[in-house]
Amino acid sequence: MPYAMVRCLITLALAVLALAAWPARAELAVGRDYVPIVPAQATDSAAKIEVLEFFSYGCPHCSDFNPLVARWAATLPGDVVFKRVPVSFGRWQWANLAKLHYALEVTGDLARLDAAVFETIHKNGNRIFDDKSIAEWASSQGVDARKFADAYNSFGVASKVKRAEQMVEPYKISSVPAMTVDGKYLVTGKDIGGLADLLPLTNRVIDKARGERKKK
After folding, report:
1. What is the distance, to the nearest Å, from the Cα of residue 92 to the centroid of all Cα atoms in its chain?
2. Are strands 80-86 and 49-55 parallel, antiparallel or unpaired?
3. Helices 198-215 and 60-73: crossing angle, nearest 10°?
4. CA dihedral sign, ordered 156, 157, 160, 165
5. CA distance 214 to 195
6. Burial class (CB in 10 A: 0-12, 13-18, 19+), 179
7. Are strands 80-86 and 34-36 parallel, antiparallel or unpaired?
8. Where are the alpha helices (DSSP H) in 127-215?
């Protein structure tokens, strides 16, 4: 048999084997791709599939992930709602950054300054962790100082920070960034190559949740 034909047959055989193995690999696997959240958590958006990103401005991986997840969130379909949950794992610096997040949300400056918080900490090396440095930074970015102080020290912001911390255990969050879907699944992605691969995997878990909703 001519060498070219043998080579062609080998290539064809390998392609067939790859196609045969692909469906099994394409199936989501518990433990590898996601972990069930037990008991499932009630979401704030029962009519939609709620996706949460647990993060901290103090986390360098969250800083790398932020532009990726921001672009991804802008493409989500109408039946999905995306929310972010700043957590501290007991670090006072991260707890203050969570307060910063919610205070900027109250003042209406979060969308404008979200990426800037990551940049000032991780690119510029500014340690805006204590109350004074956080307030000074916000003012330098054009946020009304009185309005920010009122929000940062408000009961409402403190309540949101406390609730975010309380979500860590039931949602099985041990590190950030972390993605959860519909209060039912923590996306793990043990075999993914990097943070960018976490988002396509999250899409697949969203599809799983969507399919389960349709069966009800």
Report:
1. 21
2. parallel
3. 50
4. negative
5. 30
6. buried
7. unpaired
8. 131-140, 145-152, 155-167, 198-215
Structure tokens at 20: 């045969």
Which of 75, 84, 136, 79 lies closest to 110 in space, CA to CA?
84
Q: Identify which of 198, 173, 172, 201 has the alpha carbon closest to the alpha carbon of residue 37.
A: 172
d(CA 54, CA 177): 6
**Residue 193 tokens, joined:** 């190559």
Contact yes or no for 65/55 (Cβ under 8 A): yes
Q: Which amino acid is at 131?
A: D
Condensed to tens digits (0 to 9), the pLDDT of residues 159-203 reads 999 999 999 999 999 999 999 999 999 999 988 999 999 999 999
Q: What is the pTM of this model?
A: 0.87
Paired residues of 49 in beta bridges:
80
CA atoms within 13 A on the CB side of 53: 24
Distance CA 38, CA 123 (A): 38
H helix and E strand count, the chain: 8, 5
